[in-house]
Specification:
A: 317 residues, mainly alpha
Chain lengths: 317, 337
């Protein structure tokens, strides 16, 4: 608990992190209170006149109407629920798998650790989006399937970060002492190692939410979203298929900027958190490329470069 | 460890990955619920002969992977006469199956389209690299200035921008000035020579720009951080003391040392780039591999989907191997004995 208070004290002094958190929480707020905030119920049956289809914004419909005559603003507000659900649940799943793999690979090392890291290397070279497309199109469209696919393919970054932390933590005195008095490996991992890596896991989790949200919207845009729910990606899919010839910018732009808004917020917040909790990032400048790379690839260029170089010299961690 | 050992290790890993991808690709289309191939064969609209022909083609009368029964009887060769070996044998002969919709050979369709995606990805990556390195170098050199802040904020913003959304924005903006869909104006043929290729080039502008803008941001970030790191090294001070001017220092030291992480980044990015190609080709109807994959998803054309996925995975594996080889050439530490 004490460490979280410390993180908060450091976090609130960084304006970029605060801005990011506010951007995220504004969307969380909108998603939670959607039924009170949305001017119309998107599921409601409505009578439409031909002139209502793709009608431009007016006083009754601040962001105009879509191709079915429904209010765009209300769909945008409800869409926040879908995007955030996918983002949070998929990221939680990815972090759960990644943390478990990272703890096991880092703590036990040896053959198991090597095999797990090979698996990570393997997943890193498999192109994500094509694989997701293949999986969803065979398996069928559905919210839970999308979450599962994103979660199962998204854990490699977390596993790498956790493993590299565990490698150094397990050599510290308090771990060695616990082992000397006969504590079991499971107990050491859960009581001593895990609490140490938890803050880094949280920072990674925040960053991976934005990846999951973008992945969901890409899938929905490509026509593989849950057909019963309207997410932001799905709105873009509809808009692209039906509104682009009419230049209905009020239908095209809002869902896209909503995605950008929430993902920029998450990246600002996550990279600030990571800067605070990850001792390996020594530079004190906010947008450090290594964080972006960790985010994009799950690897740090420096680690990567070093491990490639050292491997060649016959030195391994 | 010697450089050759390093390379052999990397080649071995690439081959192992390739084998896993092939096995994986096979199982993906056989084992998952709603197995597309079995579903086709069970279709009640097929005649008996057609059904038997399909069953024989896909080897569906044989066991999936391994016949334990026959192995126990001592028939080792027969035990491997399975759907999986039939698939691998066809693959080795370059036979990727027949498209469900167009009834054309999948390999043929891929061969016809692959260069269009290669051109798009290569152009976008080149642009992204040039701009990414220039902006990254500028922001590291002018550290702490408003220029750096502007570049970084822009990079952050474009990083959160989904490919397809940026594509849509550019499509709206450029409408009327540039062609926004397809590869060439209907009617033009390759025989038309220059006019044809000029028109293809014009159609290429928007998709290339879309991908380049999104991918520039990660190169800016990585370039900036490695240059910042290099510029704080002592040998930069030495170079300055020797009387080299800023331009020479940036060119000979900063740029050279930043190449290593850039090579790694390009290879790692490739997996994301092909994913981006699917989105961008969809937005601009660019008839490459990405658009093919999108269409295959809509039409549930599984042989095409399977073939495209295999091709994309193999290219990314090959590119990563290439980056490893290039890396060993660029990095003197790898040469050390």
């Amino acid at each position: 608990m004490e460490q979280f208070k410390e993180i908060w004290r450091a976090f609130r002094r960084r304006p970029m992190g605060i801005v990011g958190a506010l951007m995220l929480f504004s969307v969380v707020f909108i998603a939670i209170f959607a039924p009170w905030l949305a001017p119309y119920d998107p599921d409601e049956k409505i009578d439409v006149e031909p002139g209502d289809l793709l009608a431009p914004p007016d006083a009754g419909h601040l962001l105009g109407r879509d191709d079915a005559g429904k209010d765009v603003l209300s769909q945008l507000i409800y869409g926040a629920r879908v995007s955030l659900t996918v983002g949070f649940v998929a990221s939680f799943m990815a972090m759960f798998i990644g943390t478990t793999v990272g703890l096991v690979a880092g703590y036990y090392g040896g053959r198991i650790g090597n095999a797990l890291m090979r698996l990570v290397d393997f997943l890193l070279v498999i192109p994500d989006l094509p694989l997701m497309l293949v999986l969803i199109s065979i398996w069928g469209r559905g919210l839970w399937k999308i979450i599962l696919v994103i979660g199962i393919l998204g854990w490699t970054g977390g596993a790498r970060v956790v493993r590299s932390q565990v490698l150094s933590i397990k050599e510290r005195h308090f771990v060695l002492r616990a082992r000397a008095i006969g504590a079991s490996s499971l107990r050491i991992i859960m009581r001593h190692v895990f609490p140490q890596v938890l803050p880094i896991i949280l920072a990674q989790a925040v960053l991976s939410i934005s990846g999951a949200i973008i992945a969901e919207s890409s899938l929905s845009f490509l026509g593989l979203g849950d057909p019963t729910l309207v997410s932001w990606g799905m709105m873009l899919n509809f808009a692209f298929e039906r509104a682009i010839s009419r230049m209905a910018w009020w239908f095209l732009l809002p869902p896209g900027f909503a995605i950008v808004w929430v993902s920029v917020g998450l990246v600002l917040m996550g990279s600030t958190l990571e800067e605070i909790v990850n001792p390996r990032l020594k530079t004190h400048h906010l947008f450090d490329a290594r964080r972006m790379v960790a985010l994009v690839t799950g690897a740090r260029p420096k680690d990567f470069e070093l491990s490639r170089g050292l491997e060649a010299e016959g030195v391994t961690e | 460890m010697q450089r050759s050992d390093y390379l052999i290790g990397k080649i071995f890993f690439a081959l192992a990955t390739l084998v896993v991808v092939i096995v994986f690709n096979f199982f993906l289309f056989r084992i998952l619920p709603g197995d597309p191939i079995k579903a086709i064969v069970r279709s009640p609209r097929l005649t008996r002969e057609a059904r038997e022909k399909l069953t024989a083609d896909f080897g569906l009368d044989k066991p999936v992977f391994f016949d334990a029964e026959r192995l126990r009887e001592g028939d080792v060769v027969g035990a491997f006469d399975t759907q999986f070996t039939a698939y691998v044998r066809a693959l080795l002969r370059g036979n990727l199956g027949i498209s469900f919709r167009s009834r054309r050979d999948v390999g043929e369709v891929l061969a016809e389209r692959v260069w269009r995606t290669v051109v798009l990805v290569a152009a976008a990556e080149t642009l992204a690299l040039v701009f990414g390195m220039a902006l990254g170098l500028a922001s590291a050199w002018r550290r702490g200035t408003r220029l750096e802040m502007t570049i970084l904020l822009w990079a952050l913003f474009s990083w959160g921008l989904p490919n397809f959304f940026l594509g849509i924005i550019l499509l709206i903006l450029a409408r009327g000035y540039l062609p926004v869909g397809g590869m060439v104006v209907p009617g033009l043929k390759p025989e038309d020579g220059w006019t044809y290729w000029a028109d293809v080039g014009k159609h290429l502008i928007l998709p290339t720009l879309t991908m380049a803008i999104v991918y520039t941001s990660s190169y800016v970030m990585i370039m900036r951080s490695s240059v910042v790191e290099v510029l704080s090294e002592d040998y930069i001070l030495t170079a300055k003391a020797k009387g080299l001017n800023t331009f020479q220092i940036l060119r000979d030291h900063a740029l050279k040392n930043a190449m290593l992480p850039m090579v790694t980044m390009v290879a790692l990015n490739l997996g994301y780039t092909v994913g981006g190609a699917i989105q961008v080709e969809t937005v601009f109807s660019w008839p490459g591999i990405g658009r093919l994959m999108y269409d295959a998803v809509q039409l549930r054309d599984y042989p095409i989907l399977q073939g495209t996925f295999l091709l994309l995975a193999v290219s990314v594996i090959a590119a990563n191997l290439l980056a490893d080889i290039l890396y060993s050439v660029l990095d003197p530490r790898v040469k050390a004995e």
